[in-house]
Amino acid sequence: xxxxxxxxxxxxxxxxxxxxxxxxxxxxxxxxxxxxxxxxxxxxxxxxxxxxxxxxxxxxxxxxxxxxxxxxxxxxxxxxxxxxxxxxxxxxxxxxxxxxxxxxxxxxxxxxxxxxxxxxxxxxxxxxxxxxxxxxxxxxxxxxxxxxxxxxxxxxxxxxxxxxxxxxxxxxxxxxxxxxxxxxxxxxxxxxxxxxxxxxxxxxxxxxxxxxxxxxxxxxxxxxxxxxxxxxxxxxxxxxxxxxxxxxxxxxxxx
Length: 255
Hints:
alpha/beta; 11 helices; 6-stranded mixed β-sheet; two-stranded parallel ribbon; 255 residues
């Protein structure tokens, strides 16, 4: 099966906690199909009264998310296809933003590019000490245009700029915690999961309306993001068509 067609998203609800898990065999990268399903799942759970709080995680014990699917990126040959692909990331960010439920992120390992954007879109994120971050887009000829607003909102323009410019360097989980991306970091997955269980148990006993209104406050000033992220998707969709970017992505894939 082609890598673009692989991957899935599943969810379950137990005792008020909706757990969403995405998976792809290539380090939990995000082809368009997975992005679309993830956005739809978040939106669906936002309307499900059985879900009091949402936890988003990826499968496995290593990489949290490797970002965009390189196989899909190199196959883009026209602007409309590029815009649709990068709009997939925009749709997930906007689904998190608009969801009336608090979203807790579980980051067990490294996050790259769109994975950093995803982690930045959660309302409260816990991670392990292995959850280093990198915005690698500039290194492959693009730039973190779509995920940039989410990352900047979470860690500030200065820290986002550092990640975007130093596109080949990893920043540690401790760096990400200090900048505000992660609320807490843990030595093991088990310790992180215990903390998530403790937090979500408390949240399920909280007033749903109060949490909804609180989330609305958290995201004040982002009401224009539907249009903004669509514009950013066009920028990335245009850049990915260049020979420079295609050569850079192909070289990156060979490493």
